[in-house]
């Protein structure tokens, strides 16, 4: 590591002289981190995820093997779903729910969502190939779209979002996302939008596939319930309901910003939020 005198000298020298000197003393320019290594962490205990519940169909996989309740996935393994949903518990105390048609790579740096939708509860960072989400204990939804877009929704708690390019942070200032806000990164347009959630949006989310039918409580569910009681009157978390024998429950997740029941669009029920467009109108390439 460079000592203080060398560092002070580098600050006053012109760049053509400072760069060779910094290299000579072992300080090399930062390199972009490949997207494939985003989930890896330099320190800390390797991430472990225990399967708490599997819904709809037995189609949760850890790498290539079919997973069952109580199975444990270890970093850097990948979990994937087909026509199924699942709830996980991490060794850190945080938890997550994976929607249908999703793929998640475990890492101590972050949970790398390669495709699909992920609900995270508790102190657990997440990322896609274009954005990193840093938390202090909250409940949020992370989405990775086939067209490269990323969406982050804070149901409760503050999030810090950092843009990534080629796996490394860009020079753009971090975005702070507050409770009840949703950010979408439109990759093709290099455009970021932030909108507030309406009570109808919250209702649609809580009636959707990331909540409906799950029995285990989320680690930060108490904080989410307190926020709903204080800020979203009349909206409550659903109670667990037994599934009908021989089939999955009929979900209608009409939140018109990319959420869906696992690949179908936005559900066949009425869209909340009045005139807000559905995913097929606003985002042709979304699920």
Description of the structure:
This protein has five helices and 18 strands. The protein has an 18-stranded mixed beta sheet that branches. Helix 1 (4-12) runs antiparallel to helix 2 (15-24). The protein has a domain at 47-196: Jelly Rolls (Sandwich). The chain has 287 residues and is of the alpha+beta class. The longest helix has 11 residues, at 221-231. It has helices at residues 4-12, 15-24, 199-206, 221-231, 279-282; strands at 48-55, 60-62, 65-66, 72-74, 78-81, 85-90, 95-98, 103-105, 111-122, 126-127, 131-134, 138-144, 150-156, 159-165, 168-169, 175-177, 181-186, 191-196. It is globular and about 40 Å long.
Keywords:
287 residues, alpha+beta, 5 helices, 15% helix, 31% strand, disordered N terminus
Largest beta sheet, briefly? Answer: 18 strands, mixed
Mean pLDDT: 78
CATH architectural grouping of the domain at 47-196: Sandwich
CATH class of the domain at 47-196: Mainly Beta
Structural class: alpha+beta
Gyration radius (Cα, Å) is 21 Å
The N- to C-terminal Cα distance equals 48 Å
Ranges with pLDDT <50 over ≥5 residues? 1-36, 246-287
Number of helices: 5
**What is the general shape?**
globular
Helix content: 10-25%
The SSE order reads HHEEEEEEEEEEEEEEEEEEHHH
Strand content: 25-35%
Q: What is the CATH topology assignment of the domain at 47-196? A: Jelly Rolls
**Total beta strands:** 18
